[in-house]
Amino acid sequence: MEKKKNIFAALFGEGVRNRTFSFIIVIAAYIILESMRRSGSLSSLFTGLLVPICCYVIAAIGLNLNVGISGELNLGQAGFMSIGAFTGISVSGCLASSLTNPTLRLIVSILVAMLVAVIFGLIIGVPVLKLQGDYLAIVTLAFGQIIMSLVTNMYLGFDENGFQFSFVENRTKLAKGGKMLLSGPMGANGTDRISTFTVGAVMIVLALLVVYNIMYSKSGRAIMAARDNRIAAESVGINIARTKMLAFVISAAMAGAAGALYGLNYKTLVPAKFDFNTSILILVFVVLGGLGNMTGTIIATVVLVLLPELLRPIADYRMLTYAIILILTMIITNNPVVRKFFGGLKLRRDTAGREA
Amino acid sequence: MSDSKLIVLDVKDLGIDFGGLTAVNDFCLQIYEKEIVGLIGPNGAGKTTVFNMLTKVYQPSRGQIFFCGEDTAKKTVVDMNKAGIARTFQNIRLFSKLSVLDNVMTGFHNSITYSPVSAVLRLPSFRAQEREFTKKAMELLSIFGLEDQAGQMAANLPYGAQRRLEIARAMATNPKLLLLDEPAAGMNPQETEELMDMIRLVRDHFGIAILLIEHDMKLVMGICERITVLNYGMLLAEGTPDEIQNNPAVVKAYLGE
Prior knowledge:
The complex is a heterodimer of chains A (356) and B (257).
Chain A: H1 2-39, H2 44-69, H3 77-95, H4 102-128, H5 133-152, E1 154-159, E2 162-167, E3 179-183, H6 197-215, H7 218-228, H8 230-235, H9 240-263, H10 276-289, H11 294-310, H12 318-334, H13 336-355
Antiparallel strand pairs in A: 1-2, 1-3
Chain B: E1 7-18, E2 21-32, E3 36-40, H1 47-54, E4 62-67, E5 70-71, H2 77-83, E6 85-87, H3 100-107, H4 116-120, H5 124-143, H6 159-172, E7 177-181, H7 189-206, E8 209-213, H8 217-223, E9 226-231, E10 234-239, H9 241-245, H10 248-255
Parallel strand pairs in B: 3-8, 3-9, 6-7, 7-8
Antiparallel strand pairs in B: 1-2, 1-4, 4-5, 9-10
Helix pairs in contact in B: 3-6, 5-6
């Protein structure tokens, strides 16, 4: 009997509690916000923030798999979001006449965007994952910048004769009824706004499901083993490169999906939106929420996206206050007394186990 | 040793240079099935370097390693483990943030065959294999007396238990040869006694060969059937514990003139 309880605790203890909590938060938040939105009691400011928050949450969950679980500092998450956003916009633009159901078109665009992000993830992952620590951070940072420069110089048009593409200079000559999908630094204009909060919420649930199911499986154990001790992981037959690649590519796929959802939420989107600052912003969500802690990431993302908006009334002091709150949060959450308070339950359980 | 026994590991003229420094040279070793062999020598003799070459952490500069009759020249660290060599480390290398159970489960990495996709979808193959290997891991943990700590973080285990967990994790990879790098380091006499019983038990229970590096002569002389002595990277002597204890060259290497 005692032994059975131990197996149960080891398998389902903390993991399941964390998991269930994240799903409950997301679903409860969705139900409340969606009913508020429908009844019109949500201000237009907040209504406009619903989809972007979903996007950031998805990208941050992906990045947490990469940074928190796999332990590789990735500063290029915005690059993958950019790929996803402009792929999604292009796909949606092409399908505008053939696929009239907006939700279906959104889903197809997101799937294609994910696929393209995965391909880029694989191509970049091969050389990048041979590096460790700071070097990996530098290369992923460069990747994000390169993607931004590439998209800034891309012109893509679409008419009845098919696609027209040019680089650096706009040489596309579209027939009547043709449409510019990407116009260099101007980015994408006249996009159909087909993103919805419902799709965003479903995507968060799916992202959580994927991350948790990977975490609590053979692959997740291998990813964490490679993070904790590379040499020992290899000695038990874990292929480090393949393991890190899995985390990197899933993270890229989520950023791609988040990007597509983001891009299809605005009429205009410039490539400069997905710059280094966006990568850092997502990393801040992850670090503040807690490395490897998905529930924390969701909460941190929501708070940090809302905070600048809530601070609008104090105008000039907005970013100053934002920074102070950020620093205070870090100090407080690192305080042993506070940690003990929140970790009290867990500590008590551990000691109980040791005495038994 | 008797010739009727199968040879597990056959090392021929193994050597490695680090820059201009020759760390190990002309090292030869045969290990037969179900044998416990000791590798001893003064500090810096190159014992751990030999382990690192056998597991391909270092690529040998010279010589050959045959494992179960197969040349391992082109094998990587991961391949060596798949072929059947498992090891522990001198300075314990556990996955400190994983649970004790999960540490052992990582050892089953190549035995578990479901794909990440079936893990994400929680398909029946995932559930069946997780259940099967969790059971196997718990069996292993109970052999090493760790079943009550299964849910704890590995970093929270006491020192002796961490050493045992490292052996349990190595055994999960289903090896034919287990390399133990100073398993008794930092243990008190009573713990060392228990460890000796455990090493014997592992050999008898799993029917594997064991090669161990150790400085505790009581342990080495007590459980090893044969001993190889390394000094300055060269083979100094080889024989039964009795022969080694009475070998003047070995005594000189350890105690000086």
